[in-house]
Amino acid sequence: MTPLLKDLQGPADLRGLNDAQLASIAAELRETIIATVATTGGHLGSSLGVVELTVALHRLLESPRDKIVWDTGHQAYAHKLLTGRLAQFGTLRQLDGMGGFPRRSESEHDVFDGGHAGTGLSIAQGLATARDLRHGLERIAVVVGDAALMTGLSLEALNDIGHRGTQLLIVLNDNEMSISPTVGAFSTYLSKIKLSQAWQQSKTAYDSLIEKLPVVGGGALEWSQRLRRSVVSLATPGQLFEDLGITYIGVVPGHDLHALLETFGRVLELKGPVIVHVRTQKGRGYRPAETDQVSFHGAALPPMELTPDVDAHDPGHFASPGRSTAPHGSGSNGDAVPPAAASAGAKKHPNYTAVFADELVALAAGDRRIVGITAGMPTGTGMARFHAAYPDRAIDVGIAEQHAVTMAAGLALGGMRPVVALYSTFLQRAFDQTVHDVCQNDLPVLLAVDRAGLVGEDGTSHQGMFTLPAQLQLPYLVVASPKDEQELRALLRTAMAQAHPFALHYPRDPGFGLPAVEPPSIPVGQGELLQAGRDVLFVGFGPIVHRMEEAAAALALDGWSVGLINARFAKPLDRGLILEHARGKQLVVTFEESVVTGGFGSAVLDAMEEARQAEPGLRDVPVRIVGIPGDRFVDHGSVADLRRVLRLDAPGLEAQVRDALRAIGATPGPQTDGDAVDGARALPGPS
Question: Is 203 a catalytic residue?
């Protein structure tokens, strides 16, 4: 037949082709993928296995209005070719060429920048939830492989999808690693029954009728549904999905275009989540890849020489010359309530969590895009308040932090402004999702990092001491922490007014009892000069700033002139402000309640080291980093006791600075008229 692929402008053109032409397109896709990957390398086997599946989805869905999410993404070569990238396909995986995974910068048809397995279901759930909140009409489909379906993130997502009954098409691409055995014709027959409109309507009508029966209605309905599930389970290899609340259809032959089109077409009319189990062959159309699926899976492939496989009954197959096969080879997250005040009747100021929750509720009143997410801890994170105000925009995914973060990425892709409130210690579970799903896609997801710093009695497993260094290495992520509860409100508004990933760290502590003010606008990356000084510069990140101020006041009594900077942002750092006030100082000291290895102080030190080469006034200025030591875990105890032991209370900070000053032989400089003012700032609230 006349080649068709070169004239295809986009997936909409598929709707004008007949069955024979669609089969021709599938053959051309295989030929193009094989010929290109033979030169560039790439994920050959997985992409060849989903050619017909890809054609069917793009024939029925209206991309880019409708969304097709490719879990992992290395199976998306046919998708790229059908969405107008044939001319660039020869640059696959080359410098400045086409990426080997979906990339939003390449095409409006690429929903998500992927690459890691198991992300697709959570992304799709987020997109579908955003659609429903916007009352949109777009259809959402996700293609996930049988291996990726076994990841913890996928199972977390399936649990949430079934629980919420989200309208969603899940295509399970099973390339010979069967989830459960096929039981033949009866399974196929049952799937056809479930796809029929009559079955759907009669099932609903029957349940409604039984439930209305006097006396026995409720019990009879439960018995009836159990019986129906038992009968279905005898013939359905996907009973797990049915039990989760997801309609299971399968098994469908994955290289039969007619069967795929017919099945997907009917499934897209069903209500709720549906999983279509499609059996495909990895490497389909290239004999060595079919035979040796392991070697031909990855990007580094065995040598490929292409000639038509004239001995094969299927003329669409290719094989290497001189051989017909390839060589062998190749519950609760511990949502503990903080301990009671030391003395009965002692007044406690609202803590940071409460202030954050109240401010988020206020912001959400004027912005319907804001969605609150937590993972099994609505009370501890304050999200219970958000749920009380906006139950339709509050999501608790259970103990599933990975799904919470990746679902938030999907919500952001769908135009929402998700806020994920997690304890710092539990956010550690979702580091890959923060890197791969949120930051790589540069999405406006706010990570509300509660319990940052020392937590106290819960001990080594719960101290929020590791998240900050982990986040500072991530591109696009803004990392901030307030010096007090009113600055927390301002930084929350800053986060919601910008368009990049944002991590807002705040402690378990009560606030300082400061009166509420209209939150000022704080530009991203702008620190605050609290006090100028001549001898020493203190730079603090987070509420430790107040203890830093107390230490400075104590040093001022001995004649030291101390400059004070509230950094606000660990990333991006206000380098200009810090370097300006570091020039000529005898010592720069950084303060953070986080592990010092690779943390805030290290970021300041990096900035100083980079500037020393061109700045004579910085070359002899030493830097002392004060924080939690990085060589051990911190055991349990009250926060006050732990700060005392680690010398992170105000007297401990003062002592550490005096040790550093003695070590370098520093002495206070001559006093000037302004020194008395510098050392006499009022300190709000308790240390």
Answer: no
DSSP 332-373: ----PPPPPPSSTT---PPBHHHHHHHHHHHHHHS-TTEEEE
> Given 3.40.50.300, 3.40.50.1820, 3.40.50.920, 3.40.50.1000, which CATH number is that of 529-674?
3.40.50.920
Sheet holding 528-531, edge to edge: 528-531, 562-566, 536-540, 587-595, 623-628
Report the alpha-carbon distance of residue 319 to residue 311 in Å, rounded. 10
Tell me phi and psi for residue 347, to 5 degrees: -75, 130
Residues 573 and 540: their CA atoms lie apart, in Å, by 12
CA angle 501, 506, 511 (to 5 degrees): 145
Distance of CA 34 to the CA centre of its chain: 33
pLDDT for the residue numbered 305: 64
**Bridge pairing between strands 446-450 and 528-531:** unpaired
> Is 28 marked active-site?
no
Q: State the virtual CA torsion across 641, 645, 648, 649 in degrees, nearest 10.
A: 50
Domain limits, CATH 3.40.50.970, in the chain: 5-182+237-319, 352-505
Mean pLDDT of all residues in 260-268: 95
Q: Which candidate in 139, 282, 385, 489 is catalytic?
A: 282
Query: CATH 3.40.50.920 in the chain, residues?
Result: 529-674
Element (H, E) at 592: strand 587-595
Contact 509, 524 (CB under 8 A): no
Q: By mean pLDDT, which of 307-316, 362-371, 583-592, 660-669 is the weakest?
A: 307-316
Token pair, residue 470, equals 């982990």
Cis peptide before 251 (omega within 30 of 0): yes
| Model confidence pLDDT, tens digit, residues 381-426 | 999 999 999 999 999 998 889 999 999 999 999 999 999 999 999 9
Strand duo 528-531 + 562-566: pairing: antiparallel
DSSP 288-343: HHHH-TTTTTSSSPPP---EE-TTSSSTT-EE-TT-SSPPS-------PPPPPPSS
Nearest to residue 508, comparing CAs of 654, 673, 381? 381
CATH (residue range 5-182+237-319)? 3.40.50.970
- pLDDT range class, residue 201, cuts 50, 70, 90: low
CATH of 352-505, one of 3.40.1190.20, 3.90.1720.10, 3.40.50.970, 3.40.50.1010: 3.40.50.970
Q: Is 401 a catalytic residue?
A: yes
Write out pLDDT tens, residues 439-491.
Answer: 999 999 999 999 999 998 888 888 999 999 999 999 999 999 999 999 999 99
Q: How many CB atoms lie within 10 A of CB 311?
A: 9
Per DSSP, what are the bridge partners of residue 623? 588
Q: For residue 297, is it left (φ>0), alpha (ψ between -120 and 50) or beta?
A: alpha
| β pairing state of 307-308 and 318-319 | antiparallel
CA 1/CA 213 separation, integer angstroms? 63
- Which candidate in 284, 369, 429, 568 is catalytic? 429
Q: HEC string of 643-672?
A: HHHCCCCHHHHHHHHHHHHHHCCCCCCCCC
